[in-house]
Amino acid sequence: MKKKVHKECMSALTPVRDTLDVISGKWKILILISIWEGNSRFREIERSIPKLTSKVLAKELKDMEEHQLIKRTVYDDYPVRIEYTATTYSRSLEKVIKELHDWGVNHRKVIFR
Amino acid sequence: MKKKVHKECMSALTPVRDTLDVISGKWKILILISIWEGNSRFREIERSIPKLTSKVLAKELKDMEEHQLIKRTVYDDYPVRIEYTATTYSRSLEKVIKELHDWGVNHRKVIFR
DNA sequence: AATATTGGTTACCAAAAGGTAACTGCTATA
DNA sequence: TATAGCAGTTACCTTTTGGTAACCAATATT
């Protein structure tokens, strides 16, 4: 009798993949934290994260906006000012990130003992 | 006054990255679950996950062994039998995966409302 | 005797992610 | 008038990740 990854498992995995898509990658969490810390202007965020470039930042910000983690607001001052702010919803990621963090901290102990 | 991602944040991020390295990627969690479910032989695991190939499986298994999520045991039967089993430690990932899962489930509701 | 199964490895490719640097039109400052 | 800042965009390149298919030496099955 052949074993399989049950269908229940597979479907339970979709949301796991979704979450990983939202937070994995080299910069996403970094950018989110930068905005949580109060950085709001494009160049400000860019400068706050060493080695992050405009191209990547622009792409990630679009992504994060789609996922409703941040809001992009255009203020029609002269010149136009654009501000990125974290949504209340984005804060729901804190718990997830904390879990990842805690596991990672312990994992180092496990690996380097 | 220029804002920066504080050093504390940066260093707190290393463990988050570590964890993501261990669990992200297209197959890792799938393979872990397959082994949790009782699949132990190489071909058995391979067959249990549609589209997974030997090459990728071999690589991921090595990775997971390094991270002490699984154990590779060689039984000197004729012919040699090799078994992969999940470590007790691997179970500590369940909580993390659950967090990712729960957030993902809710995220779908948020996005498609 | 021929074919399948075991646990992989190898060489070659394709796609995705990320990096580099130049450039845009606009405004503000020196 | 020259330079710098703003919020990006564009073309091109490299690295990482994953996929394809063939192959190995052994044993087991038909």
Estimated helix fraction of chain A: 55-70%
State the distance separating the first and last CA atoms of chain A: 41 Å
Strand sequence of the main sheet of chain A, in spatial order? 1-2
CATH class of chain A: Mainly Alpha
CATH topology of chain A: Arc Repressor Mutant, subunit A
Count every beta strand of chain A, where a strand is a DSSP E run of 2 or more residues: 2
Beta-strand portion of chain A reads: 5-15%
Biggest pleated sheet of chain A? 2 strands, antiparallel
Q: In DSSP terms, counting alpha (H) and pi (I) runs of 4 or more, how many helices of chain A?
A: 5
Count of the separate structural domains of chain A: 1
Low-pLDDT windows of residues of chain A: none
Q: Averaging pLDDT over every residue of chain A, what do you get?
A: 94
Whole-angstrom Rg of chain A: 18 Å
Can you give keywords for this protein?
homodimer, 113 residues, mainly alpha, two-stranded antiparallel sheet, DNA-binding
Description:
The structure is a homodimer of 113-residue chains. Chain A is mainly alpha-helical and 113 residues long. Chain A has one domain: Winged helix-like DNA-binding domain superfamily/Winged helix DNA-binding domain (Arc Repressor Mutant, subunit A, Orthogonal Bundle). Helix content of chain A is 58%, strand content 11%. The first copy, chain A, contains five helices and two strands. The first copy, chain A, has a two-stranded antiparallel sheet. In chain A, a hairpin with a 5-residue loop joins strand 1 and strand 2. The longest helix of chain A has 19 residues. Chain A is globular, with a radius of gyration of 18 Å. Chains A, B: It comes from Agaribacillus aureus. Chains A, B: Keywords: DNA-binding, Transcription, Transcription regulation. Chains A, B: This is Helix-turn-helix domain-containing protein.
